[in-house]
Every structure is written in structure tokens, then in C-alpha cells.
Design goal:
Two copies of one chain form a homodimer. Chain A is of the alpha/beta class. Chain A folds into two domains: about 120 residues, Response regulator (Rossmann fold, 3-Layer(aba) Sandwich); about 90 residues, Winged helix-like DNA-binding domain superfamily/Winged helix DNA-binding domain (Arc Repressor Mutant, subunit A). Chain A has eight helices and twelve strands. In chain A, the strands form three sheets. The first copy, chain A, has a five-stranded parallel beta sheet, sandwiched between helices. Chain A has a four-stranded antiparallel beta sheet with strand order 6-7-8-9, with helices on one face. Chain A has a three-stranded antiparallel beta sheet with strand order 10-12-11. In chain A, helix 2 runs parallel beside helix 3 and helix 6 crosses helix 8. Chain A is elongated. The interface between A and B is medium-sized, with 32 and 32 residues. Chain B binds a DNA duplex through helix 6 and helix 8.
DNA sequence: TAATTCAGTTAACAATTTAATAATACGACT
DNA sequence: AGTCGTATTATTAAATTGTTAACTGAATTA
């Protein structure tokens, strides 16, 4: 199974050595870990051994073709969720639809520019990692934007909305000094007009509830988050 | 934001009425709910109103082009995770790479066969919905989305439809705070307009029927499910 | 050094928002 | 007609939010 953090592993299966090499080179350049297979059977073995996050499959290969390989992979629980991209010289509609319905995530027709291929791969991983929740982890302080929850050393701290938004804003760029105006615009919006003291008071409440000196005052300028 | 159970909504933006119509027809045939926009500005408005799960954007449109629209959408938190596919007659490498790097999930060059497009759309949703099993088991609480049934300690609890959908939504991501707007969109849809109090009342009923304190209110923000 | 000013802190209070509840109304369906 | 599901409204209760005013400490000035 693929970890969200680590370097992504990609297996490329194609019977043309040139293509294999070009794609491998470009993906490695982008920081991916790459393995290759020069036919369908080897691809299956490599998939087991290498446990890739993404498999790029040529359709027309000697022995087992790409679609067969895909089917065999999808049958195994271990590869149920593995990303699969078909790469094919066949650009006919029927094959493409069949390929996608087999459970592939994309179908790219050759010839394809390496840069475009890399972009598509990036896009797939980007989307998959969107799963990550908007959690900010700063030392022992955790700010979960989705859950509207702050915890320190796993102890939950209840913040009111404005308090939370203020903290989330400051913590979004630790070290950066936010001007009072920025804070007003971000947290309170441009419509509402509130006095300057209001910010101070909210800062105080956050400090108090956190019991942690992480909001620093920069006199005459604004506030910043610093652990 | 996309509901786990409901029909997926797709917004298509293209300045060519023919294309708009063909795509719309094919996607509706596949069971999707479709809205259309004939230029970039309208697309932005429709996105806000219709709240689609996927937006298919033509790149060359009068006024705002697709890439601009994509950028504007991605800036708004509400559309940060919305699926976006570019559709373009431009097949040059630079535009395609730029499009994908802008945050699109796919880039398809015209002309495209409607069947292939539909397959690609299906593939995207398939990938996104991987964890969407019908039954949710949360501690001793079981929620069966297919049978519209809830049980606690094997004791069946009858919920009305809206009540059920509300609970199912909140329980789909335990801990996550759902904004009132999200709840309205998911449970009631974008078409119907109901007052804010309606949500409260339904929350109350669910709490009452479950006899279980699993829905927490987060003042000023929304509600969350927590066991 | 003492007085003054400036900027921010603090605590108490008031105003405003927001949600829970109960009672009510209206259809759809039986 | 009666029940059920749904949405609205009014009332009440509670929490958040904003303001005020007094306080503190540092920097500035006389």
C-alpha cells in the first residue's frame, strides 16, 4: 500500500526499450522511484516485488497484453487500489473505453511527450493526496482545520470560531508577522468593521486557552506565530 | 463538495453549443446531473450555484479562458478539491503541461469521442469513491446506506429520509465539522432553499431518535459526528 | 530621574449571534 | 381522517463576540 509521505514508486511495462528508457529517465528526474518490465509477465512479477503506487502499462506487449495484466492485477486485493495508466499506440475508441472500464485511471495514446506524461502522473498523485486532511502539525501543537480542533500534547483545546480562525491564520505561516490589517481582513472580512482592541482581546483568549506562548507581539506592527 | 451517495453533478463550460449539447447528452445518459455554461464568467457563477463534483472546461472561450477560470476556482476553498478536466483543441505540449499544473485532473484534446470522455469521467469518479461502501460501522452504531437503516446494538432505529441522509453525511467523515452550507447542499441540494433552523430541527430529531450523543454542534461553524 | 506617551494587556461587561426547543402548518400517502 | 415526513416560526437559552476602561511596561522626553 502506498504511503502518502514517501517517494512514490512507479512501474513501467513496455516492450520497446527506447520508450522504457525515456519514460524512466523523465520520471526519475521528477523524483519518482522507477522500476521497469519488458513484458506482461515480468510486469506482474515486478508488481509483486516492487509494490508500486502507479503502474504504467503498454497495451501491446508480447505474451500477456496490458489489459490482461490490468485484469489480473485488479483481481488481487493488493493491487485493487493501485493506480494504473495505459499507454498505447492504439488510439481506437473501443480499446480506450475498454481499457478505462477495466479499471485503469488513464489512457494515454502514443506518441506522448515525456513532459505531458510526467504532468499527468503528477496530477494523479496530487489528486490522490488531496485525501490528506488540512492538518497543521507544529511541534506538539496540532491544528485540524477540517475538524475545527486544536490539540496540544493530544489534549484537546476548545476554541471559538474567531479564536480558531485567528490561530489558524497565524499558524499557517509560522514566523511571518501579520499586520493588524491583514488579520482583520482574513478573520473578520472587509465588510465588518471592528476596533483594533478586538484583535488584542482575541489574541489574549487564544494565548490563555492554549496556555502556550506561541503568539508573539511585534509592537507597532502586528502578531506572529512562533513555537 | 461531493456527496458519497448521491448522483454526481457535472458542469460543462464550452462556447460551442454543439459540443456542449453532445457532451451533456452523453453524460446525462450515464446518469450524471449536468449543468452548462457558455463562457468562463458564467462557468464561475454556475459553479457557485450548482456546486458540481466535476467541471469540464474548454480552454479557449471568449472572456475568461479555461485556465483563468481554473485558477480562480482553485483559489476558493469551496473548489479546492473539485475535479477539473480541461478540454481543448490546442494539443501543444506547453499548454497541456500548464493546464495540468494549474491543478486540473486531466487534459483531453478535441476532438474527443463522447464515449471516451464518459469513460474518463467514470474513471475519475471511480478512483475518488474507492472507500464508498454501503455500510458504515461506527462502534456499536451501524449505518446501512443501501437499506436506509440504522441500528444501535443490533436494535433497529427508524429514521426518516432527511434524518437518515443527515446522519449518513455527518458519519461519513467522523470528526469533520460540516458547515451549514455543506449540509444544505448535500442533504437538501442546491435547488431547494430551506431555512437554517431546518437543520437544527433535524439534528434534534436524529439525536432524539438515536438517544445517543454523537452529533456535536460547533457554534458558529456547523455540526460534526463523534462517538 | 520623573513625567509623558505609546502600544499592548487584562478583566468585566454589554451587545449580538447562534442554537435548542416547542408548537405549528402543510402535504403526501394510507 | 389520521399518520408521517418535512419545513417554518416564535420563544428561550446560551455562547460568542466586541467594547470599554483601567493597567502595565517600554521608550521618549524634559
Amino acid at each position: 500500500m502506498s504511503s502518502t509521505n514517501s517517494v512514490k514508486k512507479i512501474l513501467i511495462a513496455d516492450d520497446e526499450p527506447d520508450i522504457l528508457e525515456i519514460i524512466q529517465y523523465n520520471l526519475q528526474n521528477e523524483g519518482y522511484e522507477v522500476a521497469t518490465a519488458k513484458n506482461g509477465l515480468i510486469a506482474l512479477e515486478e508488481a509483486k516485488r516492487f509494490n508500486p503506487d502507479l503502474i504504467i502499462l503498454d497495451i501491446m506487449m508480447p505474451g500477456k497484453n496490458g489489459i490482461e495484466v490490468c485484469n489480473l492485477l485488479r483481481m488481487q486485493p493488493a493491487f485493487k487500489d493501485t493506480l494504473i495508466i495505459f499507454l498505447s499506440a492504439l488510439s481506437d475508441e473501443v480499446t480506450e473505453v475498454k481499457g478505462l472500464e477495466t479499471g485503469a485511471d488513464d489512457y494515454i495514446t502514443k506518441p506522448v511527450s515525456p513532459k505531458v506524461l510526467v504532468s499527468k502522473v503528477n496530477a494523479l498523485f496530487r489528486r490522490l493526496n488531496k485525501e490528506d486532511t488540512g492538518i497543521l502539525q507544529l511541534g506538539d501543537l496540532k491544528i485540524d482545520r477540517e475538524k475545527y480542533m486544536v490539540s496540544y500534547f493530544d489534549k484537546e483545546i476548545i476554541l471559538a470560531r474567531k479564536e480558531f480562525e485567528l490561530l489558524a491564520l497565524l499558524a499557517s505561516k509560522p514566523g511571518k508577522v501579520f499586520l493588524r490589517n491583514e488579520i482583520l481582513n482574513q478573520v473578520w472580512g472587509t465588510e465588518v468593521i471592528v476596533g483594533d482592541r478586538t484583535i488584542d482581546v482575541h489574541v489574549r483568549k487564544v494565548r490563555q486557552k492554549l496556555g502556550l506562548d506561541c503568539i508573539t507581539t511585534v509592537k507597532g506592527v502586528g502578531y506572529k506565530f512562533d513555537l
